Amino acid sequence: MKPSLSYPSLRALSASLREVREARKFGLRELARALEIDPRVLSQWELGVRVPPLEEVARILGYLRADRTVTSRILSLAKHAKDPNWLDSHPADVPSALTAVVQCERSASLITNWSPLIVPGLLQTPDYARALLTASGIRVEEVDARLVVRLDRQRILSGREPVRLHAIVSELAIREVVGDEDVMSDQIDHLLAVAEAATVSLRIVPAEVVCHPGKTGMFAIYDFPGDAAIVHLEHYHASAFLHDPEGVAPYRKLAKLLAGKALSEEASKALLRDAAR
């Protein structure tokens, strides 16, 4: 099977190569000339149009003097670039999976997000996100790095061509206190504000809906114009990406089931206003 730009690991690899080059202040043609690579080929690698050979990725990283952590992360991406489904179970300062998520979010036309226990990352306030990351027991500097990325991701919901977001959230995520009461109050106010956007649909599954398969965990479905969808499954220390139709179909079915159990958009806003009191 020919690799597609929609493959999650290839999206992450192409973005990572570009980010390292730009961080070192190299132009694309300058780097291509230094490594004696056709600039058109290097451009295709950075765009995810072609899969770069592992040895060429290593040569690029060596020339750019990428540190050991970054090199290990990107080489791992290169090894899995042709995998339609991908598991990242070795999070670093900014995990490879997070790079893939960012690229999926930026190029998606529609994101369908289910979250049973916490507010989805795209809808979190800075204080809520920091409290959640801090409670995860990770290093302070890692919290800062992830917080910057998480907040930057939210730009896709605004601007000239915002991504459409269908967020289905359990009431439990709204009632569970993260940080303190002030943090939660601000978070609920933010949800109400975001829900007014024409491109955002926010619906709440009431807490009394006690038995449904969505309780097994959060997921996101990324739909792309002219390309196959990707499902992202996020867990504490690992993330999985599904690209083949057989893997994506059950999550489309589950999203439809959860939407059937959720309140309407207006009823969901009423619940949020009640929770804010």
From TrEMBL:
Residues 17-71 form the HTH cro/C1-type domain. One of its GO terms (molecular function) is DNA binding. It holds the Pfam family HTH_19. InterPro entries: Cro/C1-type_HTH, DUF5753, Lambda_DNA-bd_dom_sf. This is Helix-turn-helix domain-containing protein. It comes from Amycolatopsis australiensis.
